[in-house]
Amino acid sequence: MAIPNLQIAELFNACLSEMEIPSRWLASLVIGIPKPEKDRKVAANYRLIVLECCLLKFLTLLIDRRVRTYAERHEIIPKTQNGFCEGYRTNNNPFILRTMVEKAKAERTPLYIAYIDLKNAFPWTNRETLWIKMNTWGISGPVVNWLRKLYGSMTYMVRLDGDLSDRFQCNLGLLTGDPGSPGNWNIFLSDFVVSHFPGDMLLHDVYVSQLEQADDIMIATQCPVAFQGKLTDMATWAADNGCETQLEKCVFSIAGPGPKQPSAFYLGTHRLKEVKDFKYVGVHFRTSSEDMFVEHYKVNADKARRMANMCLGVERFVGDMPVWESRTLYVARVDPYLTSAAEVVLDTAAPHWEGLEKIQCYYLRRMLRIHARSVKAVLFSETGLLPIRYRRVILALGFLKHVVCLPEDRLVWCAMSESFTMARMGNGSWVTDLKLVLANLPDPILWVLPEDRMSAEMVESLIVEVKASANRWVDGVVLSSARTRDLLAGRMEMEEGRLVKKVIAFRHYLRVKIPRHRRALTHVVLCCHALAVERLRWAERRCPAVARELRICRLCREGVEDAVHALLVCPHAPVLQHRDIFYAQVDAALPGFRSRYVVIVTGFKTRGGFG
Fold first, then answer.
1. Radius of gyration of the chain (CA)
2. Where does the signal peptide begin and end (predicted)?
């Protein structure tokens, strides 16, 4: 459907000026999406999504942009709100929380943290309270009046298994799925502010005691009395605004040295449960251990392993999967778990990144159809993918580059500045861990902290250095291995009409369409074939490894059985016959090939072959 923009503009302006709404816009479908790991027989375990008319969504999107512009200009949305805000990243709040925990440990004081979950925030939002708040902030006029009429006139139908319910109206809640609902929720929550107490955490001269990620609220302070006071503020605000907390999900935790006597904290009349492990905005924390993110690694490694097996199992239904398509599945479905929260969780402990690396190598070997004893570096030199350690540290540096460019009043900037301060003082922090990660790379990088403020140019130079380190490591392994140095060292790739050396790139031979040909070529190039030079390298089944010069060709008994010998040199009669047929076909397509062939074979013989 194509409607000229002018006609759409005329329609929208007519709706707003005449306070009218087309009748077809007032019928919406409600569908339920089951929540993960919940009983699907219980209606409360579904997330409700409203499917609206496309033109209605377009108009509410335009209204939302105008409201957001006004709210930003008048600083209505507090800096503590990280959800549904342009320029804010999901991992901002977990990073701020990590910095607060590390500062509490450095100061040897406890940090009391509460996690408050509002029950069905969008569906249960009190609209009348929202309109009052918008009017208080100066958000009023025909546009808001039209929105009020829209919400008051909207009818809904529930769709289940193709059947539709009767139409009904609802006087409560925001339209989940409507472009304007997230912004409206931020305005609704904008007046939630807990009281300031002396025990509040100070990050770069800014007190931080609350964070919001949409409707997920975190409260933290270093004083137990202040902590209870803030919980009381939370309960009072929820009661005054008609919000209900999901009590079973509201918990608290104590990071750093705990108090000698266990404390009891209440949200209203409900006593909060203390936990050691918790999940905040997708990041798993463990306050009872020095290794704060051990559970995060475990959970995401399990998810990545399951997803890798699912992606590899697709071949049972579609047949042979081309390498590029399998690589695309890896990037889209497996890599997100392997890099989960890489901006916050840095790989300082070998058991953690080794578990992720094992899953990555397993998938790439299956994708290339090579065995588990293949050289690890070829998994990256041939596919164009970075080793997971390098991939994660580049993401962390990208986050650092983003943060240093932010205004100094952003809380995540304050947290990063505090992290640099703690690192310069010799305390544990995100920056301290980043230095350790860079120093522990296979090709180490020494990062000296700047005395002044970190700049985006400094971070970009670090990213370039990390990428160069990855190239040096892969190239060094390829050159040092007898199995790869002859065929893989110094390869050139065509780029913009000229040949350039690329250590890590997706190779053209992996695009061969016939699966058997592609696999055979891959096995030869990566030295993963079944010839004697490779098989007799291994000690297995009580048979010791055989010296290279004794891995004789099983057919002619005249030389070491490597790929060059088997394909180009072996004088065994049946092999010669197939080789002559091959040469005849190649000479027809590439005249003069035989003369070049002599030079190639002579060169390999001089260097001792490969494998």
1. 31
2. none
Cβ–Cβ contacts within 10 Å for residue 26, how many?
17
Residue 376: per-residue pLDDT: 95
pLDDT tens sequence across 213-238: 999 999 999 999 999 999 999 999 99
The dihedrals phi and psi of 121, each to the nearest 5 degrees, come to: -55, -50
pLDDT at 489: 84
Phi then psi dihedrals of residue 210, to 5 deg: -150, 145
3-state secondary structure of 86: coil
Distance (Å, whole) CA 175 – CA 61 = 13
The CA-CA-CA angle for residues 531, 532, 538, to 5°, reads: 110
- 138 token code pair: 């100066």
CA angle centred on 409, ends 408 and 412, rounded to 5°: 80
pTM (two decimals) = 0.91
Cα–Cα distance, 100 to 102 (Å, whole number): 5
Integer distance in angstroms from the first to the last C-alpha of the chain? 61
Helices 92-106/411-424 angle, 10° precision: 40
Contact 254, 228 (CB under 8 A): no
Map tokens 């925990």 to a residue.
101
Confidence of residue 600 (pLDDT cuts 50, 70, 90): low
Amino acid at 148: R
Residue 486 tokens read as: 């002859």
**Region for 87 from its dihedrals, namely left if φ exceeds 0, alpha if ψ lies in -120 to 50, beta otherwise:** left
For the chain, how are helix, strand and coil distributed in percent, rounded to 5? Answer: 50, 15, 35
Rounded-to-integer distance, Cα 330 and Cα 517, Å: 23
Q: Where are the alpha helices (DSSP H) in 202-257?
A: 224-240
Q: Please give the C-alpha separations between residue 599 and each of 246, 287, 486, 592, in angstroms, as whole numbers.
A: 76, 66, 15, 12
Helix H, strand E, coil C: the string for 390-443 is HHHHHHHHHHHHHHHCCCCCCHHHHHHHHHHHHHHCCCCCHHHHHHHHHHCCCC
Calculate ∠ Cα 389-392-393, nearest 5°: 85
* Contact by Cβ (8 Å): 438, 466: yes
Cβ atoms of residues 105 and 255 within 8 Å:
yes
Q: How far apart are CA 265 and CA 275, in angstroms?
A: 13
Judged against a pLDDT cut of 70, whether residue 602 lies above it is answered with no
Query: Could you report the per-residue pLDDT of 448-459, keeping only the tens digit for each?
Result: 999 888 999 999
> What are the angstrom distances between the C-alpha of 473 and each of 85, 353, 476, 481?
40, 17, 5, 12
Of 212, 197, 262, 268, whose CA–CA distance to 235 is shortest?
A: 268
